[in-house]
Amino acid sequence: MANELNHIIVHCKDRRRTAAFLADLMDAPAPVDWARFTQVTTSNSVGIDFADDLVPADAINISHLAFLVTDGEFDTVLTKVTDARIPYWADPAMSRAGEINHDYDGRGLYLLDPGATVSIEFITTPYGDVPQPRTTVPSAT
Description:
The chain has about 140 residues and is α/β, with parallel strands linked by helices. It is built from two helices and seven strands; from the N terminus they run βαββββαββ. Strands 1-4-3-2 form a four-stranded mixed sheet, covered by helices on one side.
């Protein structure tokens, strides 16, 4: 049986704000409200349904969304993030502020949605079959 991800529910503090934030970064179509969800559709037609009333705000576990993007799309995201002074990091532990990584010979960054409950990653190269150590060379580009 073929399996294809169709949609996923992500808990956050403000579904409309988080959806708009992500859609803007990705140059995605405007988010759509679906009953108690606000959905962002990715370029491969996966729906990310943001929900803000299913879990109390203080009980939300941080979710993680990772997007594989082209070099040009990464440049656009990085420009939007730096122009808006949105904090970003090179690593998932968020210990290398204002840097990007060059893992798997690509570029990557992590940032948080406005409610700080969704960790969003943009990478230009998919992870390999075997984990590599994280890069340690600081870089802003």
